[in-house]
Specification:
Tumour Suppressor Smad4
Length: 232
């Protein structure tokens, strides 16, 4: 079972902060036990931030910075009683972030694959349901044809309303699949990507947008802070 911690000003929270800018029930963090954590804002007044960007919900790692409101930094290692990570050797060049930047390749690749997966699943599901709903009235029409003599009054009505059944099926199909948009899933994916795909320099954290990882690798550095992205 995943360990979860609530954070806020109220006494009922696991981690309590006696600060006026922290909401009574500010945020919830869940240790997913695979090196990742789920951070959720609980409709706080002043927000929950990951790498300097306000979020509603985001999956992060120990390499990411979590902040409540303006200045309350959350130490995930201490909150969950984890073993302290070995401190990295001091950089010879303080601007060298090549190792940290290389980790962003997985962030970019995973994001692209997940977007494609969500879109394909939605398209397949929508196509199947639309086809099923469209064909259902036609199947009923065929059954009714066998149920009534085509020379009878009822049979004539059924036969003459073939087009009505077809249009009805298509209309129902469109209405039924109209609310199946993957917008919410893609929106959540985009939010998590934006807060993780940032300059690895902790003093910068500029969002790298939708520019491919390889483009930044070829660029070689962050134009804002000068952090080095490769050894070249």
């Amino acid at each position: 079972m995943f360990m979860m911690k609530t954070l806020g000003r109220a006494d009922t929270n696991n981690i309590r902060f006696n600060k006026p800018d922290i909401s009574s029930n500010h945020a919830r963090i869940t240790n997913l036990e695979n090196g990742n954590f789920l951070v959720e804002d609980l409709d706080s007044t002043n927000g929950t931030f990951v790498n300097g960007y306000r979020i509603k919900k985001a999956t992060i790692s120990l390499n990411d910075e979590v902040r409540l409101s303006e200045s309350t930094i959350i130490n995930l290692t201490e909150v969950f009683g984890l073993s302290k990570q070995k401190s990295e050797p001091q950089k010879i060049n303080p601007k060298d972030f090549t190792n940290e930047f290389n980790l962003l390749k997985q962030v970019w690749d995973s994001y692209q694959k997940e977007r494609i997966s969500i879109t394909k699943k939605h398209q397949s599901k929508s196509t199947f349901i639309r086809a099923a709903i469209t064909l259902a009235p036609l199947v009923i029409w065929e059954i009714l044809q066998f149920s009534f003599d085509e020379h009878s009054k009822a049979g004539g009505i059924v036969k003459s309303n073939y087009i009505v059944f077809s249009v009805m099926g298509s209309t129902i199909a469109m209405l039924s699949t109209g609310n199946m948009s993957p917008v919410e899933k893609l929106s959540q994916l985009d939010e998590e990507f934006r807060v993780k795909y940032v300059c690895p320099n902790p003093t910068c954290r500029t969002q790298l947008g939708n520019v491919p990882w390889l483009s930044y690798s070829n660029q070689g550095k962050c134009f804002r802070c000068g952090a080095k992205y490769n050894k070249v």
